[in-house]
Amino acid sequence: MGILKWSRSKSPWLIHFNTGGCNGCDIELLAALTPKYDVERFGIVLEGSPRHADVMAVTGPVTRQVRKRLRRIYDQMPEPKFVVAIGSCALTGAPFGDCYNVLGGTEKQIPVDVYVPGCPPRPEAIIDGIAKLLGKMESSDDDDGE
Amino acid sequence: MMMTENEIVESLKESFGDKILEIESPRERRIFSRIKQEDLKKVVAFIRDDLQITHLSTITASDLGDEIELIYHFVYEGAIVLSLVTEVPMDEPKIPTIVDIIPGSQLYEREVYEMMGVVFEGHPNLEPLLLPEDWPKGVYPLRKEYDLEKLRELNKDDTA
Amino acid sequence: MTPRKDTVGRKTTSIPVGPQHPALKEPESFTFEIDGETIVDVIPRLGYVHRGIEKAMESRTYIQNLYLAERICGICSHSHTTCYAQGVEELLDVKIPDRANFIRVIIAELERIHSHMLWLGVAAHEIGFDTLFMHSWLDRELVMDLLELISGNRVNYAMNTIGGVRRNISDDGGQKVKDSLADVEERMKHYVEVIKTDQSIRQRTKNIGPLNCTPAADLCAAGPTLRASGIARDVRKDDPYAAYGEIPFDVISYDGCDLFSRTLVRCEEILEAIKITDYAIDNLPEGAIRVRAARKVPEGRVVSRLEAPRGELIHYCKSNGTDTPERYKVRAPTLANVLALGNMLIGGNVADIPIVLAGIDPCFSCMDRMAFVDTKSDKRWTWTQEDLQRYALKC
Hints:
CATH architecture of chain B: 2-Layer Sandwich
CATH topology of chain A: Rossmann fold
Structural class of chain B: alpha/beta
Structural class of chain A: alpha/beta
Order of helices and strands of chain A: HEHEEHEHEH
Number of helices of chain B: 4
Number of domains of chain B: 1
Radius of gyration of chain A: 15 Å
CATH architecture of chain A: 3-Layer(aba) Sandwich
CATH superfamily of chain B: NADH:ubiquinone oxidoreductase Nqo5 subunit
Strand content of chain A: 5-15%
Order of helices and strands of chain B: HEEHEEEEHEH
Largest interface: A-C, 41 and 46 residues
Number of helices of chain A: 5
Oligomer: heterotrimer
């Protein structure tokens, strides 16, 4: 394993983007960062800028207004990048699927690596999803900088 | 001294007579009153200056077919909701703004404007508030003529 | 919003803020006009999370809409379903059992406690006091556990139904709630003490984001924002719903008109909410928790209001005799406070933007990337929320 891949999978930086959700997943994601669940023990840090992030955590259905921003933020992330879709809305649009301003789930806009279902998923489920992603990162073929 | 629902109803009736088309209090702390749109500003000014009701909770617009019904939900002392109902014709949806009397109505009027297409004449900044920037002009999603299918068609060419 | 008069005509700089935030909640966007360090105008651009729920509600049945109402906001989900259910119950002319009303109150107050503690954490984070952020979120987990104990879910509890509530609270469960809340109360008293005495908190909040009583009333502000400006309005007291008419409690208000008052109002409301919950559990009436309600709702219209954690929530429902509403309107408290937000920000410092924005406890505490546009040189650059915070702390 190359040093870049090793360091990425040991300490992935996360960017959170709500694409139109109800806040439920967002507060659970935030709860995962606070002392009771504490994802920082896996080296996961929440980052504000997409340019510094390895993983994008998307919550909520994609609204028409936010679509371009989602794309832009995804494009700004450096390669290789990973996307975790959190919550039923981010998976399929769920109850908002047929609303006029909603374009459906995240996967219609950008490629998604891990899906975490639930309305909202518990912090443990979110952590589990991210841990699965770490496994995927370690076993991925792209060996950068070697 | 708090006014009761009855006192509010009476004072409106007394001041405006038959300009108040309908007025009723379906239950305690709720009043619905229907007026003509040309009387709206006078009534709102009276509500603010004489009845001391300054809080506007929101404005609801509903599509009645030939008319758009506007409901101004005022709240007296945080307790009694006085809903002023008025109608504007669908083919010429215009009504004077009340921003100069109730400054807090700004965003509510903008919301009604973009969702129902009611033009509030004299509003300082009547621009879209909630709909996307690339939303087609002249499509007002809460009107009944646009059903969900039709509105979702708008998104189709967009996702491609 | 109206810019300050003395700056009209001068060269100002525009700062678009949003629509992405790293820590939480919804994306929204604000454009700030600044002159040097001073904010002279604020232009909000909402709608990044506009999903079209009102339209969707017209095409679904009353029972289906309950789930949609729950998901208007994940933090105050119970407020929305309560408001929805009590409106529909009024249209149906259904009187729900007393026990259901008390359970609604208990959940509503637990929700208020968790929402205010969440706010306290976020506000502490915005002023650079991350220790308090972590502590308050750790203690908030006690309340989340209680909500899970009662409803089976931490967020989106699905407790309400038309005609009552779905789940009962056992005597044992009630005792657990009281025990846990006793711990929360002790912690909160400590935090109130910290907020009142800590110099750094006082400096970052005293006289910041001013909103005097007159503009607060004129701009139709609501909730803790209004109560911190000296106007003691609370729907629970003024227009009692559920069981609030039978429960003694005080409306907390402060007249400091600044962030410090807003913080104190919310913290003391938590203490008050604990009292209400304890009282409701002690006086929980016996009996059924729900009654049957018809699926078709007779023609009529209703205005339903309640005090959500962020302020006055108002729903309007017009029914047409079928099983779907003719028109459903929701006005969430944050929209009522957006205008007042402009009033607080104008004249303030760029460095205070994050905390003043957080100060109304917006359901869209947005702002991550900020693009700065210098109107003179047309140069653009981007700041993240972290940069902004760092900058804010440096000043």
